Amino acid sequence: MTRTALAVVFLLTFSFAALAQDKGVGQILHRSKMRRTSSPIKIVEGKVSEINDGKVIIENDYGAKKELKLSSKTKFQLTEKKRVKLTEVKPGTFVKITFDENDLTATKVQETTKRFRE
After folding, report:
1. Bridge partners of residue 56, in order along the sequence
2. What's 81's DSSP letter?
3. Judging by DSSP bridges, how do beta strands 83-84 and 41-51 pair with one another?
4. What is the pTM of this model?
5. Which of 51, 77, 82, 86 has the smallest set of CB atoms within 10 Å of its CB?
6. Are the beta carbons of 39 and 100 closer than 8 angstroms?
């Protein structure tokens, strides 16, 4: 009987501890979900390989390529700080692109003076 009573107390103690921990984990998960809903903004730099109405592909100085989507809200800017149209950004231009990491949509394409290895 003593073993049984001890086993019951042991199980009840650990089940309450597990429930308490579970609630804490749930709160942590809830907080992390809240962070994920905000759109993380990233910046990437490189040379424009291809650009058209729907996408831009840039290449860094090591040859790695990244494809990003363009939207009607994407802003284009040259080094003179003036806004330009998509057609004025040509392949071979060195750019810094600000984009939303969730959907890989560019928000700003800005020409940069930084030159990469050729």
Report:
1. 51, 68
2. S
3. unpaired
4. 0.62
5. 82
6. yes
- CA-to-CA distance for 44 and 21, rounded, in angstroms? 40
Return the domain boundaries, the chain.
Answer: 1-38, 41-111
Q: Chunked in runs of 10, what are the mean pLDDT values of the chain (118 residues)?
A: 74 61 47 52 92 90 92 87 84 92 92 68
Amino acid in position 25 = V
- DSSP secondary-structure letter at 108? E
d(CA 83, CA 94): 16
State both tokens at 43.
């910046």
Token match 């004025």: residue? 88
The pLDDT of residue 80? 72
Q: 14: phi > 0 → left, psi -120 to 50 → alpha, else beta; which?
A: alpha
Q: Which one is the CATH code of 41-111: 1.20.58.100, 1.10.1790.10, 2.40.50.100, 2.40.50.140?
A: 2.40.50.140
For 58, 62, 99, 115, the CA distances from 96, given in Å and listed in that order, are 10, 16, 10, 11
